[in-house]
Design a protein that fits this description.
single chain, 131 residues, mainly alpha, 6 helices
């Protein structure tokens, strides 16, 4: 398996887990706040827009777009900084026991996607226009 194929497989896995997490209300989407309790449709629309934005970024990375790689890294850096200052998050119910394990695996795969996107030969695909 070459590096480009591995890179695309990792992006596809990340996108699939993002959709599963959203559809089953696991992970970051299971947070309970006053806003989510009083305005469920607004929350659903906002989460849908966020998922669509993530899928757009991942699709851009699939096709080796430089803007997608830049936005991906910036969003990950902002997420890291916000996780340091964010308070406790609460959920109405605990997700199944395998969800945190897969979440950690997805975190490692996300780091691998970032590393591969800045290392050759995948890095070289971002400089050319063929996909």
């Amino acid at each position: 398996m070459n590096a480009t194929l591995a890179y695309r497989v990792l992006i596809a896995l990340r996108a699939c887990w993002l959709l599963v997490e959203w559809l089953f209300n696991w992970g970051a989407f299971s947070t309970v706040t006053t806003f989510t309790l009083t305005r469920p449709f607004a929350t659903l629309i906002a989460e849908g827009i966020a998922v669509a934005a993530w899928l757009t970024i991942l699709a851009g990375m699939w096709f080796f777009q430089r803007w997608a790689r830049l936005i991906f890294v910036i969003v990950l850096a902002l997420g890291l900084v916000s996780s340091l200052v964010r308070g406790q998050r609460y959920s109405l119910s605990a997700p199944p026991s395998f969800v945190p394990v897969i979440g950690v695996i997805m975190l490692l795969l996300t780091g691998t996607v970032v590393a591969l996107s800045f290392l050759p030969p995948v890095r070289n695909r971002f400089t050319t226009k063929d996909a």
